[in-house]
Inverse folding.
């Protein structure tokens, strides 16, 4: 799984960090999400999918590989 | 269950449709939406689209190939006119009758208009993509703009209109912008933010009527009789749930479609998004006009329809962007709660704080402090006792 984050769309809601804290974090200064792991292991796929689904700004895209 | 109809093809309706498929529903799926466009996202309309920094296609909720993959029948540009909950049929304006085993009501809300003068040219509302494009076009040539209503929508539009070079007056009968949603302290900060950018903030006064000449708006007459000239007026005085098509259906229509904890409105009928009022297990009856809720409730309602629903108990979440300020709000942040700053400093334009009510933390907010606001959210989920967070400022 490849995670693609569009920081231009991100509104800093932190929802991705709440559900997948090993995959996403937020920048301190403006709260924009950052990718901790662009290629999460199988054990984190479910929470990463959940983050992409929940993101209120549609900033997270997943590509299965 | 082999026939599911979703009425309202936007954030809540689309999410419900996706959740149905994800959960293995293989029957017929029909989405009815009265807008001609494929589903698009509304929050960017009052921000990037109005400012002109995004082209409208960036607001698409999903790519076309993804929508195809849902295997649904799309009835776009079609309007539902009535529901017969006993016979389980939805009738469209053009006469087509859709039978269903399961129905998702996701018709959102409709902007309120002013009783006098709303029909004049130059008077706008902002809900749809078409509204946003028309408003932008108007703003590009307007010299003086009056925005009626200083809630989130009016405040965001005031910021963009100012950035586009218009002379803006923001009018509201309450004491400060966004005070109802965020309380007096944050409301005062918002008033100062807008004033600092050159907006004339006229609070504690309503609008008596819009004044026109030759069918075009020329100004706004305030409650005190004073006249504010305007060649463009945006009316942003809130919305009402789009439930006209449900009149006489037997569904309980109070403030929106009234549902139980599982988002059920009637046998085989669920509701989600801005239109739905439901019983939140922890917070009581709620109707939430926030983007995040459309996604969460669309999913919850779909699970209920398939028999696997659970009480819907989210922490409501909202954000708004105005000028260079980003506000994040979790839980209940309205004026009936007490607000206290616990990090940062309002004087420096960066702070985060908590809202308390009945001895418990009920909400968290960040003003240019998104990360801290998210961290404070745990006090909302844990309903931390208010005295515990009432340590001296900064503590
Ligand atoms: C300009 C703007 C900016 C916003 N900014 C933010 C923000 O910054 N943060 C935030 O959290 N939220 C924001 N919101 C709120 C957020 O967009 C809404 O909460 C969300 O769109 C609700 O989704 P929904 O699917 O419930 O309703 P809607 O998106 O309103 O969708 C309902 C759909 O149903 C259709 N419909 C209605 N009646 C019928 C009928 N009889 N037959 C067929 N179709 C019908 C409507 O045309 C519409 O397409 C904003 C909203 C607007 C308008
Ligand atoms: S959920 Fe989306 S909007 Fe929120 S911080 Fe993550 S990427 Fe940004």
């Amino acid at each position: 799984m490849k995670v693609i984050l569009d920081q231009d769309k991100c509104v800093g809601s932190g929802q991705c960090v709440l559900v997948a804290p090993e995959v996403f974090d937020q920048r301190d200064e403006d709260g924009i999400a950052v990718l901790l792991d662009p290629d999460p292991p199988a054990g984190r796929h479910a929470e990463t999918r959940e983050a992409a689904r929940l993101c209120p700004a549609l900033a997270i895209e997943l590509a299965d590989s | 269950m082999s026939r599911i109809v979703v009425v309202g093809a936007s954030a809540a309706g689309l999410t419900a449709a996706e959740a149905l498929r994800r959960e293995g529903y293989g029957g017929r799926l029909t989405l009815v939406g009265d807008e001609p466009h494929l589903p698009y996202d509304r929050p960017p309309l009052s921000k990037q689209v109005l400012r002109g920094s995004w082209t409208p296609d960036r607001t698409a909720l999903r790519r076309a190939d993804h929508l195809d993959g849902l295997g649904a029948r799309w009835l776009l540009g079609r309007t539902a006119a009535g529901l017969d909950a006993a016979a389980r049929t939805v009738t469209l304006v053009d006469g087509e009758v859709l039978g269903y085993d399961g129905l998702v009501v996701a018709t959102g809300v409709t902007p309120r208009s002013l009783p006098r003068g709303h029909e004049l040219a130059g008077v706008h509302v902002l809900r749809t993509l078409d509204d946003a494009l028309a408003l932008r076009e108007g703003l590009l040539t307007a010299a003086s703009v009056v925005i009626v209503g200083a809630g989130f929508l009016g405040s965001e539009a005031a910021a963009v209109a100012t950035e586009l070079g218009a002379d803006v007056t923001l009018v509201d009968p309450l004491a400060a912008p966004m005070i109802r949603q965020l309380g007096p302290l944050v409301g005062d900060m918002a008033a100062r933010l807008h004033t600092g950018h050159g907006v004339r903030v006229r609070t504690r006064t309503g609008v008596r009527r819009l004044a026109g000449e030759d069918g075009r708006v020329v100004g706004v007459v305030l409650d005190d009789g004073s006249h504010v000239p305007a060649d463009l007026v945006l009316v942003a005085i809130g919305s009402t749930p789009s439930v006209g098509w449900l009149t006489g259906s037997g569904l309980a229509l109070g403030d929106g479609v009234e549902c139980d904890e599982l988002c059920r409105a009637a046998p085989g009928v669920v509701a989600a998004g801005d239109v739905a009022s439901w019983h939140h297990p922890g917070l009581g009856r709620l109707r939430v006009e926030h983007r995040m809720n459309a996604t969460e409730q669309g999913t919850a309602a779909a699970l209920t329809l398939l028999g696997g629903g659970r009480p819907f108990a989210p922490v409501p979440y909202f954000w708004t962007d105005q000028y260079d300020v980003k506000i994040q709000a979790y839980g209940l942040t309205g004026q009936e709660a007490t607000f206290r700053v616990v990090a940062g400093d309002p004087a420096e334009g960066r702070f985060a704080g908590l809202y308390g009510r009945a001895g418990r933390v009920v909400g968290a907010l960040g003003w240019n402090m998104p990360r801290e606001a998210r961290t404070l959210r745990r006090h909302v989920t844990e309903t931390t006792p208010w005295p515990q967070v009432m340590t001296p400022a900064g503590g």
